[in-house]
Amino acid sequence: MARSRFLALTASTLVVFGLASCAPPAKEESSGQTESGVNAREATSAEDFGGMEGLIEAAKAEGELNVIALPPDWANYGEIISAFSEKYGIKVNSAQPDANSQDEINAANQQKGRSTAPDVFDLGQAIALANTSMFAPYKVATFDDIPDEFKDPDGTWVNDYGGYMSIGYDSSKVPEITGVNDLLKPEFRGKVALNGDPTTASAAANGVLMASIANGGSADDIAPGVDFFRRLNDAGNFLPVDPTPATVESGQTPVVIDWDYLNAAESKEIPTWKVFVPNDALVGGYYFQAINKDGPHPAAARLWQEFLYSDEGQNLYLKGLARPVRAEQMAEAGTVDKAAYDALPAVTGTPVLPTNDQSTKNAEFLGANWASAVG
C-alpha cells in the first residue's frame, strides 16, 4: 500500500520518463556490444560474459541502470537500489516511482531506442504475461534454486517476491475486522480503500479475488468479488482514493486492502494499525521480474537480476517484509536473515495462487465489468 506504482492509468502516456511534447530528444541507446566482444543483449547467463567478473566489468562499463515504478518504501526497494549502486559503482536512474505495471510497458514502447528506456521490469502477473515478447531470457546463478512454478523455464520471467492479500486498518478509527464482509457494515462508511485500479494493478486485482473467494467465488470466478465491491460502493463504504503512507497517516484512508507486507509496514508508523489476513480467503501472489530486451544497458540489467536473486538481494526484500522467492531454500541452507524471516506476518489456511491462465481470464473480466461496478 505504501507504493502507488499500481495506480490506475491516468496521463502516464504523456509523463512517464518526460514524454511531454516539449521534452528534448533522448540520447540513443548503445549497441550492447562490450569492449571484450560479448553481445550483452544476447547473453542468457553470466557465463556468456566469461563469468560474474566479466558481467560486472561489462555492467560497470555501461555505468548506469534504468529502473521504473520502484518506490523506495515498496518491498524495501530504496535500500535495494542503494546497495546495488554502492556495491558496483553503477548509477541507478529510478523513474516514475508512482507508475503502475502497464505504465512500465508503455514507457518501454515509447522510449524504445533511447537511453532513457527502462532496462528492467517489475510487473504484476497479468501485465507480465501479456508482454513476454518484450523480455530477454536470462538465467541468474541461483536459477536452479527457484521452484519451477515461479519461473519461465528459459528465464524469460522469474518471480521475485510476493505476499498475501490483507486488510490493514487503524483500530482506533474502526472496529476489529474478523472477515472480509465486515467491510460492508455501516461503521466503515467512506473508509475502505483499494490499492489501485484492478484493471491495471496486480495488488488491486488480487484484492478483488480475495473478496470473491470470501463470497463463494474462486480463482476461476472473480465475479462475486466485483459484486462485493459494487455493494461496498452502493453502501457508501468504498473510498475511491489511492492509498499512500500520507493518506494512511493522516487518517484519510483508515482501511486499506493491499499486500500484507505493505500493510505491515504501516505498523511502524501507526501503533494502532493492524493487519488482518483472512484464512478463509487467503490469496497469495508474486511479482514478475524481467529484462527489457531493448533496454539501453543490457549488461547492467543482467547484473541487477543477479543481485536481486542473490542471498543479499533476497534478504533485502525480506527486510521489507516481502516474501522472497528463494526464502525456503535459503532457510534450509542457513543463509536467510532469520530475524526478518520470523517477523513476517503470520498466515494460516491454504493459499490460493492464481495460475497464469486464471490471472489472464480474471483480467479480462475485470476490464469488462469493473468500471460499471464502482462508477
From TrEMBL:
How far does the signal peptide extend, from start to end residue? 1-22
Q: Which domain of life is it from?
A: Bacteria
Q: Which UniProt keywords apply?
A: Signal
List the PROSITE patterns hit by this protein, alphabetically. PROKAR_LIPOPROTEIN
Positions of the region Disordered? 96-116
Compositional bias segments (type: Polar residues)? 96-114
Q: Does the keyword Signal apply?
A: yes
Question: PANTHER family attached here?
Answer: ABC TRANSPORTER SUBSTRATE-BINDING PROTEIN (PTHR30006:SF2), THIAMINE-BINDING PERIPLASMIC PROTEIN-RELATED (PTHR30006)
Designated name of the protein: ABC transporter substrate-binding protein
Organism for this UniProt entry: Mycolicibacterium iranicum
